[in-house]
Design a protein that fits this description.
It is built from no helices and 10 strands. With 122 residues, it is mostly beta strands.
Length: 122
């Protein structure tokens, strides 16, 4: 069974940057289409970005476009979420999951990790 593990969250000041990682042990991720999602307190889980298998196609939600990007390191078996110009609205728990690239949406995601907390505060 595919078990995804997120890491890299933490406390960051407004305007700062973070890189989140999504990895899996013993299972190659290059054949999987992966998405990043987030959930802020009191809000519904929402999509952030998705990446296609092998080919490297990416999709970033409009809400974070220009500040966030998603990438894949096949050798490291890891998918990254690069976040910059962070603000308080980005405070949330961030999750990765498998999801069809053409349906980069919470409703189509599976194999959720436990998430990693990102807090943007001075």
């Amino acid at each position: 069974q595919l078990q995804l593990v997120e890491s890299g969250g933490g406390l960051v000041q407004p305007g700062g940057s973070l890189r989140l990682s999504c990895s899996a042990s013993e299972v190659p991720l290059d054949v999987w289409e992966i998405g990043w999602f987030r959930q802020a307190p009191g809000k519904e889980r929402e999509g952030v970005a998705c990446i296609s298998a092998r080919g490297g196609g990416t999709y970033v939600y409009e809400s974070v476009k220009g500040r966030f990007s998603i990438s894949r390191d096949i050798n490291a078996n890891t998918i990254y979420l690069h976040m910059s110009s962070l603000n308080s609205d980005d405070t949330a728990r961030y999750y990765c999951a498998t999801v069809p690239f053409n349906n980069c949406n919470v409703d189509y995601a599976h194999n959720w990790g436990q998430g990693t907390q990102v807090t943007v505060s001075s």
